[in-house]
Automatic annotation (TrEMBL):
Organism whose genome encodes this protein: Laccaria amethystina LaAM-08-1
InterPro entries attached to this UniProt entry: Metacaspase (IPR050452), Pept_C14_caspase (IPR011600)
Pfam families reported for this sequence: Peptidase_C14
Region (Disordered): 1-23
One GO term (biological process): proteolysis
Family from the record: Belongs to the peptidase C14B family.
Protein name in UniProt: Peptidase C14 caspase domain-containing protein
Segments forming domain Peptidase C14 caspase: 35-291
Bias-annotated ranges (Low complexity): 13-23
One GO term describing the cellular component: cytoplasm
Recorded GO MF terms: cysteine-type endopeptidase activity
Length: 690
């Protein structure tokens, strides 16, 4: 075998598992269009006026015009009497129209400051899943005003429910793309009576009840493959339609300070945006840096939270970068621990931001830290022995560069000298990598055929179903990519096989096919049908790609007395990708790591994923060309505290791959930090292979 010796290039720090292999994207500014709504005055005497919402809307508009240089012609402004129910709904269409002729990836920002409310869901809305059967709504200026509907029925102006906002957002997304940000400075919850004496809640406690026919004409215009029954709350039907920035969680209130004339959330948001380079912020780093009191915890969610703010063109956050905080007492705390696979002695490079490097932004290492002690969700970092101190911000990011235990990998190649020259000693040490003398002793075997390197795994159980060869190859002289495939293999195996200390016996998963049906209003509803496909381990599923019912939904059942935070991933051993299917919203401020961050799985509850209130699309298995059998693993990480498992994510290393009233209660402290895992193995067979 004729092989060449590689050049001595970057071998000490592995590339992120979610970074492009060659990040060359050049950032381009994205045009911004915005709908900005602020309401202090409410027409009905039943509802208390606010004092700061209009000022907040004006301040946000001023930020867009002065700091982001957004032309005023790109902004639709609705204040007080202008912000009626009808005009707010029409504003979504107007936003679409003023962006006509622009590229599909223009940034659309919808900002609302005013009262919010929560109300019981109409009984007739059986197809609309809602947490605790409560509907969230925003409250227009004319809410509660007497009115007669188009059928001549007398009543009052109702709030604008989350269901309507969801459909309007998806209409926008279908036409203008997914670069949409929804910012809500209002309450989305009830039941809190009095807060800090000097603050006012942006909350209507007793809004007019919703009629079953509320906005039916809007829902019935919903077409396409997205079902109205897909999600609840302002997060929208799919996490993919937009990113939500909400002032608080569902069991909190959004507060405004009449003395300063500002809402706490908008005040903190604009203060941060005013002193930071907006182009270098992602939604995640924005939340990390947002300062808020423990009794109001902003929430962020959406598929694209790792993008830069209002920009889908530039490279965003590197999910392997973990938030790290320098405390006042000098300790350095990594916001990840044993649940994320960290062990004592692990080594990290530190960085000022969480951005992927590209042609316009560099993110060099500031220095090295090691794990001194590890808890369930945090790690105490320190300087390596004998290392010099280095300067770093109070908040920064750390990336794992050396795993010291539980994550070893052995490789073999026929030409051992060639293999040794690719995996230099520094790289072997960083990855716990060793080079085997025999193919049978290796985890990964490298073979060179026609100047291409192929990779075979030594996993007898997986190989029985899909063979040993990975679904991709790299050029023989592409040494970086060879190392990447091996690193990804180690990362994949480590996170797939490691188990949590708690087995959560009273938590289980059910996977079922989804049947698509139309309501009388032509809403598309997904309903689970048939048996639980993963009632055995491993489970075998026959895939008929021509059959209409190939989409799948997962239900997670929590019969414990604990609120839980689920993180669900799919592991594909063919291309080494690890894909996120569901992760919860995450918080900002002092309440981030407490139960003031909403738990998707309250005690004695269930969560729908791919249908109902999960907010993510259904799952669908697809075969690569020529394949009739495949295997994969759904792995569920569970925790009793909000955490961040994005470090688990991994793109395939191969270029082509298929796959606010009264003081809120104090945050609950969990008696013990617990985490655990569940896994389901899925063997997929083509219908012609049965």
């Amino acid at each position: 075998m004729q092989t060449s010796i590689p050049r001595l290039d970057d071998v000490d720090v592995p590339v992120s598992p979610t970074s492009p292999l060659s990040p060359t994207s050049i950032e381009r500014k994205t045009p911004i269009f915005s709908l900005i709504i602020g309401i202090n005055k409410y027409a009905s005497d039943e509802f208390q006026d606010l004092k700061a919402a209009v000022g907040d809307a004006n301040s946000f508009e001023r930020f867009l015009v002065e700091q982001l240089q957004v032309p005023k012609s790109h902004i639709i402004s609705l204040r007080d009497e202008q912000a009626t129910r009808a005009k707010i709904i029409d504003g979504f269409a107007a936003l679409r129209d003023i962006a006509a002729g622009q590229p599909r990836d223009v940034a659309l920002i919808i900002y609302y400051a005013g009262h919010g409310a929560r109300i019981e869901k109409p009984l007739e809305w059986e197809d609309w899943s809602a947490s605790e059967d409560q509907i969230e709504m925003i409250c227009a200026h004319d809410i509660g005003v007497p009115a007669t509907d188009k059928d001549g029925v007398e009543g009052v102006i109702q709030g604008i429910p989350d269901r309507t906002i969801s459909v309007l957002l998806n209409h926008l997304s279908d036409i203008r793309g997914d670069n949409i940000t929804l910012i809500l400075d209002c309450c989305s919850s009830a039941g809190i009576n009095r807060g800090e004496a000097d603050y006012v809640a942006r909350q209507i406690l007793d809004p007019p009840p919703l009629s079953a026919n509320c906005d039916k004409d809007i829902w019935s215009r919903e077409t396409g493959t997205r079902g109205v029954g897909i999600a609840e709350g302002f997060s929208g039907k799919f996490h993919a339609s937009h990113v939500l920035l909400a002032a608080c969680g569902r069991d909190q209130s959004a507060w405004e300070d009449p003395k300063s004339g500002q809402g706490l959330f908008t005040q903190s948001l604009l203060k941060l945006l005013g002193r930071r380079d907006v182009e270098s912020l992602t939604y995640t780093s924005l939340m990390h840096n947002l300062k808020m009191p423990v009794w109001q915890t902003p929430h962020c969610e959406g598929q694209y939270v790792n993008r830069r703010l209002f920009n889908s063109r530039a490279l965003g956050a590197d999910t392997s970068f973990m938030l790290t905080k320098a405390e006042k007492d000098g300790t350095i705390i990594l916001q990840a621990g044993a649940a994320q696979g960290i062990t004592v002695g692990c080594k990290f490079s530190t960085h000022a931001s969480n951005l992927i490097e590209d042609a316009t932004h560099t993110n060099p290492s500031l220095g090295t830290l090691i794990a001194r002690s590890v808890d369930a969700f945090t790690t105490d970092l320190a300087l390596p022995e004998g290392a010099l101190n280095f300067k770093h911000p109070r908040l920064f990011y750390s990336r794992l560069t050396k795993q010291v235990s539980g994550s070893k990998i052995t490789v073999y190649g026929e030409d051992k000298a060639w293999v040794e020259s690719i995996f230099l000693p520094e790289y072997r040490q960083a990855l716990n990598l060793s080079i085997a003398d025999k193919a049978a002793d290796a985890d990964i075997v490298l073979s060179v055929v026609d100047k291409k390197v192929y990779f075979d795994r030594n996993d007898k159980w997986v190989n029985t179903h899909i063979g040993s060869r990975l679904a991709g190859s790299v050029e023989v002289d592409d040494f970086h990519s060879i190392r990447e495939v091996v690193r990804c293999s180690r990362h994949f195996s480590y996170h797939l096989t490691r188990q949590g200390p708690d087995d959560f016996r009273n938590v289980w998963m059910e996977l079922k096919y989804l049947r698509e049906s139309l309501t009388q209003d032509y809403d598309i509803v997904m309903t689970p049908i048939g048996r639980n496909l993963i009632d055995e381990e491993p489970a075998t599923i026959t895939i008929d790609e021509s059959h209409p019912e190939t989409r799948l939904g997962m239900t997670i059942f929590n019969q414990t007395d604990l609120p839980l935070y689920p993180y669900l991933f799919y592991f594909d051993p063919s291309d080494l990708s690890i894909i996120e299917w569901f992760t919860p919203a995450f918080g900002a401020g002092a309440g981030t790591l407490t139960t003031h961050t909403d738990a998707p799985l309250p005690r004695k509850s269930q969560l729908s994923i791919g249908y109902g209130d999960g907010g993510v699309p259904p799952w669908e298995f697809m075969f690569r060309e020529g394949d009739t059998k495949d295997i994969g693993f759904f792995k569920l990480f569970l925790s009793t505290s909000p955490s961040n498992f994005s470090v688990v994510l991994q793109k395939s290393p191969f270029e082509e791959s298929v796959s606010r009233y009264g003081k809120p209660s104090a945050p609950q402290a969990v008696e013990a930090e617990r985490w655990g895992t569940k896994m389901a193995t899925i063997i997929q067979l083509a219908s012609s292979n049965t």
